[in-house]
Design a protein that fits this description.
Shape: globular
Bound molecules: protoporphyrin IX containing FE
Number of helices: 5
Number of strands: 0
Structural class: mainly alpha
Helix content: over 70%
Radius of gyration: 15 Å
Strand content: under 5%
Length: 120
């Protein structure tokens, strides 16, 4: 149940991020509206809380939890790159965007494989 909630908010999070980037390119004035600044924070807070709930519910801290540490570290990079995306324009913005997407995919694969080094 919580996992479904987690997966739903992952989808909402990536949709709101990509949607905001597209809107800021096409309709920059719309992105400044309160709803577009507050909603992503609400979505991402719920996503984090559902992740933390799953950590405790699954008893992951008493087993193999390296993958959760990896998820959290890359999540911090993802958030940082997201800030760069929203604050810059041009090549910097798009490089940060590609980096953020790579982080997101990495986090997803780590969640499924439970292995931070799945690529080795
Ligand atoms: C961008 C952020 C995140 C993405 C893309 C993501 C992705 C996923 C996915 C795809 C699953 C399902 C894995 C499966 O069913 O095999 C999952 C489960 C899970 N996630 Fe996340 N997650 C994110 C953030 C977090 C955070 C912040 C935490 C907490 C530190 C967290 C902790 C967990 C836990 C404990 C599970 C359940 C694992 C299990 O019981 O199989 N996630 N996540």
């Amino acid at each position: 149940m919580i996992k479904l909630f987690h997966l739903t908010f992952i989808l909402l999070s990536i949709l709101s991020f990509v949607g905001k980037v597209i809107l800021s390119e096409t309709h920059p004035e719309v992105v400044k509206q309160k709803a577009f600044t507050i909603a992503p924070h609400v979505i991402n807070t719920v996503l984090l809380l559902s992740g933390f709930t799953l950590v405790f519910q699954g008893g992951w801290l008493s087993t193999e939890f390296g993958w959760i540490v990896a998820k959290l570290l890359v999540l911090i990079v993802y958030i940082g790159l997201g800030i760069v995306v929203m604050k810059t324009r041009g090549t910097t913005r798009w490089l940060a965007f590609v980096g953020a997407m790579a982080c997101f995919v990495y986090i997803g694969i780590v969640a499924v494989t439970k292995n931070a080094f799945f690529f080795i």
